[in-house]
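[step 3/7] fold_predict: job queued, chain A
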Amino acid sequence: MEALIFDTTFLIDFQRERRQGQGNAHIFLEAHTESLALLPVAAYGEFTEGFECLDDPNLINIVDSFEILPVTQAVGTTYAQLTRKMRRQGTLIGANDLWIAATAVEKQLPLVTRNVSHFARFAGLVVLGY
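[step 4/7] structure written:
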């Protein structure tokens, strides 16, 4: 079974499409119905921050479709390596995106995002746009 890691932009777009009508996020999911949907804990936190209550039915409905990936020691090590490299190159990005990328790189799984060029700079990361 194919496994895919999703970033926060996907969740935000998916939520918006649920209100406004299906778009690229829904089309992507329909094309990958057999895939295991994984969500880095950093993306979960970013998305959840947009809700007043953790028991919001919209939040629960969306997040329950994903398996949450924790930060492990291996992910932390990958994060440190990616951050150090980007800092040296002067291309450092936000910490949450670094944690999301580190999770995908460490798991060796594709990352699904609207921000393809943002994440494409990470060596060893397969990025899928939608």
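[step 5/7] annotate
The chain has one domain: 3-128.
The beta strands are 3-6, 36-40, 67-69, 111-112, 127-128.
exit 0
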